[in-house]
Specification:
Bound molecules: thiamine diphosphate, iron/sulfur cluster, magnesium ion
CATH architecture of chain B: 3-Layer(aba) Sandwich
Helix content of chain A: 25-40%
Radius of gyration of chain A: 27 Å
Low-confidence stretches of chain B: none
Shape of chain A: globular
Number of strands of chain B: 13
Helix content of chain B: 25-40%
Structural class of chain A: alpha/beta
Order of helices and strands of chain B: HEHEHEHHEEEHEHEHEEEEHEHHH
Mean pLDDT of chain B: 94
CATH class of chain B: Alpha Beta
Largest sheet of chain B: 8 strands, mixed
CATH class of the largest domain in chain A: Alpha Beta
CATH topology of the largest domain in chain A: Pyruvate-ferredoxin Oxidoreductase, domain 3
Number of domains of chain B: 1
Distance between the termini of chain B: 62 Å
Number of helices of chain B: 12
Largest interface: A-B, 74 and 66 residues
Strand order of the largest sheet of chain A: 11-10-12-13-15-14-21
Oligomer: heterodimer
CATH architecture of the largest domain in chain A: 3-Layer(aba) Sandwich
Number of domains of chain A: 4
Low-confidence stretches of chain A: none
Mean pLDDT of chain A: 96
Strand order of the largest sheet of chain B: 2-1-3-4-8-7-13-9
Shape of chain B: globular
Structural class of chain B: alpha/beta
Strand content of chain B: 15-25%
Amino acid sequence: MKLQGVNDFVIRFANVNGSGSASANALFAKSVFRLGVPVSPKNIFPSNIQGLPTWYEVRINEKGNLGRRGGYDVVVAMNGQTLKKDYEGLAPGGYFMYDSARQLPADFARDDITLIDIPLTQICNREFEDPKLSQLLKNIVYVGALTHLFDMEFSVLTDSILSQYKKKPKLGEPNIKALELGFEYAATHFQDTCKLKVKRSNQLTRHILMDGNTATALGAVYGGATVAGWYPITPSTSVIEAFDRFTGQYRRDESGKKRVAILQAEDELTALGIALGASWNGARGFTATSGPGISLMNEFLGLAYFAEIPVVLIDVQRTGPSTGMPTRTQQSDILLCAYASHGDTKHVLLFPCDPRECFEMTADAFDLAERLQTPVIIMSDLDLGMNDHICLPLEWDDTRTYDRGKVLDGNQLESLTEKWGRYLDKDGDGICYRTIPGTHPRLGSYFTRGSSHDEYAAYTEDNDTYQRIMLRLDKKWQTAKSLVPKPDIQVSDTGTGYGAVFFGTSAQASHEALETLESKGIMINTMRLRGFPFQDEVREFIDRHKTLFVIEQNRDGQMRTLLINECRIRPDKLVSITHFDGLPITAGHISDSIQQILNAQTQQGGAQ
Amino acid sequence: MSSPRPGFRHPDLPKNDLGYTRRDYEGAASTLCAGCGHDSISNAIINACYELSLEPSGIAKMSGIGCSSKTPAYFLGKSHGFNSVHGRMPSIATGANMANRDLTYIGVSGDGDTASIGMGQFVHIVRRNLNMVYIVMNNGCYGLTKGQDSATADRGSAGKKGRPNPFESIDLCELAIALGAGFVARGFSGDKEQLVPLLKAAIGHRGFALVDVISPCVTFNNTAASTKSYQWVRDHMEATSFFDFIPPRKEITTQYGKGTTQSVTLHDGGVIHLHKCDESIDVTRRRCAIDALEQHLEKGRLLTGILHINESLNDTHDILETTETRLNTLTEKDLCPGNQVLQDMMENYR
Ligand SMILES: Cc1ncc(C[n+]2csc(CCOP(=O)(O)OP(=O)(O)O)c2C)c(N)n1
Ligand code: SF4
Ligand SMILES: [Mg+2]
């Protein structure tokens, strides 16, 4: 039986890296989005520039379930290296599209799928003279064919191409032609073949389709960042590239000079050092990196914590340990970032779950870092940062002003009646008053150091003083709890003993999984963590349930460890649901895992 | 442990153009070993800033970790200072300078701090030509960790432990010239007649200015077999030239004969008149400057003074085309494009 249905399937494009497939595949996803149908594309790409296999997986789901589903119903198999694997992995009843220039070997003998062979090479060689163009346009031809197979509005695709090539209409023409060629071929040869359809839905009137790194970069622009140090590393590089692009456009003075300084550093130590030096000196500095960079930044993070220097750090997490799988996703820097550096250190973490939160949390992070005078780390990941996600549009409140925290200006220094101390806790919230170099000719200078210091910033090895400063830093940490974003808690059933805890890019799949379980009568309340340190609400939610599933994308259940440690939770109360193969977590994996655990509990006669 | 110096002020102390006394440029009492070369350099920095009438609050002091890097606590007490981590001062200085291009940045580092752990940051700050004075208090050893050889220790030189250093040494000045630094000088902590003007000229230079100061460690590396001892340096140092540094807006009163005197005008209008000791050395030419260093090395002599100067280079801000306004003074109005722009932009994502 052929798979059938409207606006609910997964299509996988199997390509060779560097063959120009990315823009064609994105065109397809964007067109689905423009039809108002919820869509989530995921680029599964190698750490390579040319030649290795790459996949682009697009989930289309009318109900708006946009986590990775797992499995695929249609495959566009353009890569000989992975042909067999792509063929075998296709769901029964699925559709296998390939270039008929390639003879399928005899062992491709499934009878539960539909073959759609299109002479892509032949068509392109015939229609386009330039061999390079002909190669590239093969990708567009298959998109044209899909348009017909899924019964999509053709004009949405041509409009997309026209707007993409608005400035170079000459380049748009062959693309439109390629689309038409594919469409016509499918119309002639595969009239009623495919039973999966994409129909206009208009669910997404206000939404945007954007990758998280772009949103993060915009957050830094709107949040007033003026100095960025960075060192290239996937998947964070595009944060700075986008920041560079946007500031090039929106941050010019009257003479065209830049209101920003972006420096590609020699390594991540320098990248963070630049951000710290800038923040110490009263600008808003930041850097973006991934796990290996965070490892290198540890020493400086300790300095920033102890000397109390604000800084914003974007961690776009990837699959570790070590170089790991640099182009695959994970949420595996949680413990590294929470406690980065030697000695007693803790850092404020924010966990965005979609591009809109990337934007908001990044902008907020600059306020938070200056308010708390400490590093704030945005815990994004490859899936969020580099894939397009549907979300509500980014918005900025024009009445908003930057919170520069407790910074004394010249007048304030002059009107002080008592001696000022850089590390003196005047307000009892653990946050002290700082000064920016050059503020006043005589007042307010101090010496910043990572060695032990007293309330007046003087070097000290006095044990009591050291301890007092450390305790005051802990008080500041308590204050931070009231400033970081609260968890998003949804209690649908006050009677259930089950709760689920998740964060960041695990949220979509978790919600979907819990809906599935709910349809089977298993009620689970949810808490999406948005910041660290954890507030009382986090502990209360956990206390309210008997068993909690902590869903995350790493092997060791790092968030579970953090919760146990910080909220003093009995470990057996928190059950780990982990997914760490480098691909985004799926709803199926979560619901199956929870189901299994519950089944085992019932068999043992335990639990409820 | 550092403590403030007694606050006693003599009413008749001489004042500079800003009305400050030399004391206004001092810092906390030093905690270094008595006789440590580093303290003499601190004093030279105090003299240079006092004599140049720099506003103390217009200076930022940066350092890494080491005995040398502690010294910013001992000079310019009215300036902000940042004692960072080992070998990473250049990055902090870079960020600070990006935030506020109008301060004078004086960085202090050690030979361990610069030539070993911080080598990466050092070479790259030179390449970027950050506008700052970078002073290396060079004692050929790691003072603070008790005297191990550093990467600037000459081969065969021996400190207190007596074992001759078996490794080739790094000449930071030659390296900096090769990397394109616009101002490179070498001084000796025991020669303040030379050092103070060197520091003043370095401050007057716009762009990266390296001042490598041989600064004996009396506790671990002032032995007869050490080439970083007071005695050895006194016996072997030669200067490229003697020079006068005329700060901007000061009248030039002396007339110099042609030929042996070369004048270089600095960015801020100051002038350096170099009276050559060796006519063959033209410090304004990079190749010549490196040759001079190599020739002296072959002869077993230590070349000091201004080793290279080039006033025509772009600094980091020029290269990045940053606005003239200090970035740390920009506000929402300058930085935030506003919601309308954002909403227009959203159309590109629909
Ligand atoms: C990451 C790190 N490694 C090692 C040290 C220990 N340490 C402190 S100072 C120093 C060497 C300092 O030598 P130098 O820069 O020449 O300064 P000096 O004390 O000689 O003036 C070392 C290795 C440190 N502070 N940090
Ligand atoms: S150990 Fe050496 S470098 Fe350190 S203070 Fe003493 S003399 Fe100076
Ligand atoms: Mg040393």
